[in-house]
């Protein structure tokens, strides 16, 4: 019943933003963010000079993904972004983040690192503007569109567990202890939403107090119920 209720909330939220497009500024470029049902596409409207010099044009795809529900019913988006280099095919990489059309948002992931020469991917990084893609709203094409608000003050679906009083749980940029730390959660903190994705004992979560999104070990979280 709970899963059905969450799905109903998400369906309502998506119906209010179906086929709407909003212009955003991203890293010096103007982009178009379009939501159609549960799909999200981000394309360039006016690429910055550096991107134009390497062939990025109006309409070039930057990101394509899907809106999914948080455990508290709010939407987030996940999918594949693309990194560009002159003379190379766009390099795809997975990103995700809390999302609401018309509001500023950020998508995070492990961005590819190209070799200094050629098109070989030699590394990945969780730092910089490609790994932490920020989108600031510029203008909406549909000023009359309805807004769906989210109550961020209500408790999340998860609590920090098995951490001594006064201790903290590291929030990582990826599903493993080898990934960099993006934040911490205090012992017994229950203001945490699960993002319904776990890999090899690590789960994606969002700290509702500040919107931090990352991965924590499944051994240190429990249901808030």
From TrEMBL:
Keywords: Signal. It comes from the Bacteria. Residues 1-21 form the signal peptide. The keyword Signal applies. Residues 168-221 form the SH3b domain. InterPro entries: SH3-like_bac-type. The keyword Cell cycle does not apply. This is SH3 domain-containing protein. It comes from Pseudahrensia aquimaris.
């Amino acid at each position: 019943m709970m899963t059905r209720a969450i799905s109903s909330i998400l369906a309502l939220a998506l119906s209010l933003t179906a086929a709407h497009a909003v212009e955003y500024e991203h890293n010096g470029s103007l982009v178009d963010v379009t939501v159609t049902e549960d799909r999200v596409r981000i394309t360039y409207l006016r690429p910055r000079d550096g991107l134009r010099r390497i062939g990025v044009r109006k309409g070039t795809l930057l990101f394509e993904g899907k809106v999914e529900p948080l455990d508290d019913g709010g939407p987030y988006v996940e999918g594949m972004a693309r990194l560009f280099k002159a003379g190379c095919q766009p390099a795809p990489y997975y990103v995700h983040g809390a999302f609401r059309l018309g509001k500023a948002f950020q998508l995070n992931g492990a961005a590819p690192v190209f070799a200094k020469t050629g098109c070989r991917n030699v590394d990945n990084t969780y730092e910089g503007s490609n790994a932490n893609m920020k989108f600031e709203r510029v203008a909406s094409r549909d000023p009359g569109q309805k807004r769906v608000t989210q109550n961020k003050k209500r408790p999340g679906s998860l609590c920090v567990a098995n951490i001594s009083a006064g201790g903290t749980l590291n929030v990582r940029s990826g599903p493993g202890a080898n990934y960099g730390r993006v934040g911490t959660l205090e012992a017994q903190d229950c203001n945490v939403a699960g993002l319904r994705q776990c890999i090899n004992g690590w789960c994606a979560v969002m700290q509702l107090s500040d919107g931090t999104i990352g991965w924590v070990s499944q051994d240190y979280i429990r249901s808030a119920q």
